[in-house]
Design a protein that fits this description.
The complex is a heterodimer of chains A (114) and B (157). Chain A is an alpha+beta fold and 114 residues long. Chain A has one domain. A 4-stranded antiparallel sheet of chain A has the order 1-3-2-4. In chain A, strand 2 and strand 3 form a beta hairpin. In chain A, helix 1 packs antiparallel against helix 2. Chain A starts with 23 loop residues before the first strand and ends with a strand. Chain B has a single domain, classed as Cathepsin D, subunit A, domain 1. Helix content of chain B is 4%, strand content 41%. Chain B has 1 helix and 11 strands, in the order E-E-E-E-E-E-H-E-E-E-E-E. The radius of gyration of chain B is 17 Å and the shape is globular. The N and C termini of chain B lie close together (7 Å). Classes of the chains: A alpha+beta (114), B mainly beta (157).
Chain lengths: 114, 157
């Protein structure tokens, strides 16, 4: 059973420039796995299976990037989110290269509350 | 009729364990050359007016008043230029919508990395300005695992 507050990774990343923030495949923290498992427990396993990777990836991105005020583009994978772009400049460049209407469904944006 | 169901996004706040809820919609904003550029906006009926960063507007070649108006944006303290943005809604038909908009901040200076979130210019869509042409409603099916916190439905009138 988790006890809040949790010390998530973003707390140790505050103030770093976007290029120094995590890129590439992020490992799903055990705390995130426990939270998502709890959220999905009320649904039958066969119903929540298609949504599990998406939830794990989104909450993991939140674990690393919440409150850093940077947008993030990532790709959902069963192993965790694969971070493709971090920060305004990288995300703008990614959006120009791969507009929303042609990008793969597994590519998502974490707006970073901007 | 064009209709879009947007699931409510949710994220755990690790500081408290609370669940944060919000709705984002992707708008294809028409730039100064007539092309469309995608941005995610938060649907926010609590904002006074649709807002957009002035520095992004300048990059898009949108018309910006040379000087800011004689008010500051209350929530952020940023300078304000009054204008309008035109956009299509991703996932709906090709109808072009336009709403009044406050362009926030200095057009020549994007916010520096590390700027506190409270004073960042945000992309907020005030849906009440669209009620002549669009209907916004909320629904929740408790059995829906794809939208466990419900959906915002946007329908063309």
């Amino acid at each position: 059973m988790l006890t809040f507050p949790l010390h998530n990774a973003a707390l140790d990343l505050k103030g770093k420039p976007p290029e120094e923030l995590p890129h590439g495949l992020l490992t799903i923290p055990p705390e995130v796995r426990e939270i998502v498992t709890g959220q999905l427990a009320k649904y039958p396993p066969e119903a929540h299976a298609p949504y599990e990777a998406g939830r794990l990836c989104f909450e993991t991105v939140g674990w690393f990037f919440y409150d850093l005020a940077v947008p993030v583009v990532y790709r959902e994978t069963p192993e965790g989110p694969d971070v493709l772009a971090v920060g305004r400049e990288e995300v703008a460049a990614y959006n120009a290269r791969v507009p929303h209407d042609v990008r793969p469904a597994a590519v998502k944006t974490f707006r970073g509350f901007l | 009729m064009s209709r879009l169901a947007v699931p409510v996004s949710h994220l755990t706040l690790y500081a408290t364990g609370d669940i944060l809820l919000w709705v984002d919609v992707t708008l294809s904003v028409r730039d100064g050359a007539g092309n469309f550029v995608d941005f995610d906006f938060q649907v926010d009926s609590g904002t006074d007016i649709t807002t957009f960063p002035a520095s992004d507007a300048k990059q898009l070649g949108l018309y910006l008043q040379p000087q800011p108006v004689n008010v500051r944006h209350e929530q952020t303290g940023l300078e304000v230029r009054s204008g309008q943005i035109a956009f299509r809604i991703q996932g709906m038909d090709q109808t072009l919508y336009a709403v009044p908009c406050f362009f926030l901040g200095d057009p020549d200076t994007p916010p520096a990395p590390g700027t506190p979130r409270a004073i960042l210019p945000r992309k907020l869509l005030q849906p009440l300005h669209l009620l002549d042409v669009l209907k916004f409603s909320t629904e929740k099916d408790p059995a829906s695992i794809g939208a466990p916190h419900g959906e915002v439905i946007i329908e063309k009138k």
